[in-house]
Amino acid sequence: MNILVINAGSSSIKFQLLELPAERVVCSGMVERIGAVDAILTYETSESQHSETTSIPNHHDGLQRILRLLLDPDKGVVKDISDIDAVGHRVVHGGKEYSDTTLITQQVKEKIAELSALAPLHNPHNLEGIIVAEKLFPDAAQIAVFDTAFHQSIPVKAAKYALPAELFEKHDVQVYGFHGTSHKYVSEKAIQHLGTKSGKVISIHLGNGCSMTAIENGKSIDTSLGFAPSNGLIMGSRSGDVDHAIIFHLVNKLGYHLSDVERMISKESGMLGLTGYSDLRDIQRAAENGDQNCQLALEMNAYRIKKYIGSYAAILNGLDAIIFTAGIGENSSLLRQMVCTNLDFLGVELDRNKNDQRSNDLREIQSAESKVKILVVPTNEELEIAKQAHQLMMKRTI
């Protein structure tokens, strides 16, 4: 079964075509800088690589270009559009309604649109990818995999805010959690590696968006992102945790419009607000060259992560492993080192030589004396989406 996975962002589309159940990647690629005249399209198969810089005005054009490459007589990997059985879509916010992988209907699309108010940086673009894919792949099943689904197991004592009860009961104001597809994938890999089904694991997903999840017996029991994907850790342009009184102060005392505050917290804060850079590689280079703002931002980032490690170790009543994953988690040995320093009271001790080594595989980076495993686990959201889509397709044929 051929499943095309689409991960549509605000200015990008990641894609993979996978053959299931063999889990074979047939091709993969990415469209970056959508809307710009110098957009970048990359495409890779086992036999060839292709890259071009061109104008890609919108997501529809980006997906059309992907389709042309899939069908290209020389570079292509399918003979006809009908060879694609399903299209799996990453959707960030599924609310309380969607706790499982879901076949997309008009009702599902309307709900995704409704939830865009809670995930304005993600859901609108996820929905746009769905609408375009329906037109370009009319015979394929369109399937949504929700980032929030993995966190449905969080108990009420952790999911409910200390607000008037009717907000929870009537208006679904609660912790939803995000990056669930990634946390699910890497935690399953880690638990399999540990050889136990009852692992107490903290998964740390560090990219432009960041989150942490406490996982016990393979289930999410708490997570740092809540009602919307904006709180918790310090992110590329999102603030993470702030005292909500600051918002009232900005509006009532300093004269900010509420929409300006929303934009500030979501798009102008985090590492960008602290340093002027949103890419951690730029921040690390500047810090090495003596930029004090960048040095402080790295310290703040690591400090926030440590606070969550401590609280999650407490609610787990122990800790078997810490997982670092996603672009920063997998590649920044500096931030991993800063996070793991002075955690020996928890039994966490890093081996710096192992930490500095690079690999595309799951690896352990703790010292021989460490009581807690420290794992770097490459995430693969596209494979996880394809697996879940395949499972749904198989159920439909039974």
Automatic annotation (TrEMBL):
Function: Catalyzes the formation of acetyl phosphate from acetate and ATP. Can also catalyze the reverse reaction.
Gene: ackA
Keywords: ATP-binding, Cytoplasm, Kinase, Magnesium, Metal-binding, Nucleotide-binding, Transferase
Keyword ATP-binding: yes
Entry protein name: Acetate kinase
Species lineage: Bacteria, Pseudomonadati, Bacteroidota, Flavobacteriia, Flavobacteriales
Source domain of life: Bacteria
Keyword Kinase listed: yes
Organism, scientific name: Nonlabens agnitus
A single Gene Ontology CC term: cytoplasm
